[in-house]
Design goal:
Blueprint lengths: L1 E5 L9 E4 L9 E11 L1 H8 L8 E2 L3 E9 L11 E5 L8 E5 L4 E2 L6 H21 L7 E4 L5 H12 L3 E6 L5 H5 L5 E4 L5 H9 L5 E6 L6 H6 L1 E9 L13 H5 L4 E3 L3 H4 L3 H16 L7 E6 L3 H9 L6 E5 L1
Parallel strand pairs: 9-10, 9-12, 10-11, 12-13, 13-14, 15-16
Antiparallel strand pairs: 1-2, 1-4, 3-5, 3-7, 3-16, 5-6, 6-8
Helix pairs in contact: 2-3, 2-9
């Protein structure tokens, strides 16, 4: 099998394209031949060392494919089943042995590409909008990186839930795309912080009950200023860098705010939680309320170029690798 591996952390150049032997699946595992691999910003955190991995290591946490074999004790899957996963390390490869209880069957009518592009991002949108903070009809919410992979799904889903959705993007070129994916108002988040006042104006001075922020360092302080009294700050990423340490007293001074730093792993801890989350995602896609846009495709051997595109913020929607 061919795969992307890293033996040290750093920029995209640390990724090596190697050949390796994939052993038979162990007890409780299924061997999956990948057809499409999802690319996510968390992959760059693992590669750079922001999120620590034991080295050497594979990269990637999301893929779709076909079961080739199952290990002892696996009764829920059989060879030939179409499956997808999000959360098992080493997806940047032609195949992998994956714990069977972390695999979900892809329903008829959902393509492998859609499944690989939406599992991590779509399940993230699901838990953010429906469990971290249950968005209600009539509420006005703020979601950063509106033209990104999670953002495009979240905009459509939040609109489906009846919310008025404010989004931010990095430049004017992405405004139209965000508006086409559920956002009622799209603001360009420049360094001058003008977007903070715009959010206040759009909410009648009250602020939003929830802000979803995957950007981190560059937007964290401004996001707090966009919140209503007792509002919830959902910090779920660091695309601009980690949020620096701060005095928790800021939260009380700005209106008794709440802060959470959730992860998908905490919301899909059990096989039942995983299935329920994935089923909800696949159902909203099947309904037509949420469409998955795969806007960048690279060969597996071009993973470095895919990461460079992510860092340049030149991507929109989902990015996938083709083995």
């Amino acid at each position: 099998m061919k795969a992307i591996r890293i033996s040290r952390t750093g920029g995209p150049e640390v990724m090596d394209f190697v050949v390796f032997d994939l052993p038979p699946p162990g007890p409780g595992q299924a061997r999956v031949k990948h057809t499409v691999i999802g690319v996510n910003f968390i992959d760059t955190y693992h590669r750079s060392g922001l999120y620590k991995l034991p080295l050497p290591s594979g990269l990637g946490m999301e893929a779709a494919g076909v079961v080739e074999a199952v290990g002892d004790g696996v009764t829920s899957l059989k060879p030939g089943d179409r499956v997808a996963y999000a959360g098992a390390m080493g997806a940047y490869s032609e195949g992998a042995n994956v714990p069977a209880d972390r695999l979900v069957t892809i329903p008829a009518g959902v393509s492998d590409e859609t499944a690989a592009a939406c599992m991590l991002k779509g399940m993230t949108a699901q838990y953010l909008l429906k469990r971290t903070y249950a968005v209600k009809p009539g509420q006005t919410i703020l979601f950063h990186s509106a033209a990104g992979g999670v953002g495009l799904i979240a905009g459509q889903w939040a609109k489906h839930l009846g919310a008025t959705v404010i989004g931010t993007v990095g430049d004017e070129a992405k405004v139209a795309l965000a508006k086409a994916n559920g956002y009622d108002h799209v603001l360009v988040a420049r360094g001058d912080g003008a977007w903070v006042k715009q959010v206040r104006d759009l909410t009648g001075g009250e602020g939003a009950p929830v802000v979803y922020d995957s950007i981190g360092k560059d937007t964290f302080a401004g996001s707090l200023d966009c919140l209503a009294t007792r509002g919830l700050m959902v910090s779920f990423g660091n695309s601009s860098g980690a949020v620096p340490p701060f005095d928790p007293g800021i939260l009380s001074a700005k209106g008794s705010l709440y802060l959470t730093r959730p992860t998908l792993a905490s919301y899909t801890r059990s096989p039942q939680e995983l299935r329920e989350t994935a089923d909800d995602l696949f159902a909203v896609i099947a309904s037509g309320a949420v469409k998955i846009a795969v806007n960048q495709r690279f060969k597996l051997s071009e993973a470095r170029a895919a990461h460079e595109a992510l860092h340049s913020r030149a991507t929109t929607g989902a990015t996938v690798l083709i083995p």
